[in-house]
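Input.
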Amino acid sequence: MSSKLSKNQLEKYSRQIILKNIGILGQKKIFNSKILIIGMGGLGCPVAEFLTRSGVGSLGIVDHDLVSQCHLRLVLLNLLTLLATHSGQYPCY
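Output.
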């Protein structure tokens, strides 16, 4: 596993990289990880957000609800997902 990160990645994830238990190799493992979240309720939605921000390589989401205005947490997550997917940095579905 190569330990080289781009300048942008070093800047974006520097607070995680400086942690003794993560470092550059740990961050590379996070980039290469795949996680599936079942349910986007009060716990699943913030977990998805934090995992996305940490640099998880692939994040799958399964939920039975549809996105609508009455589900603001899902609307926000889908907006963030749409923006991230458009930029090609965080594929989530």
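The two ends are 26 Å apart (CA to CA).
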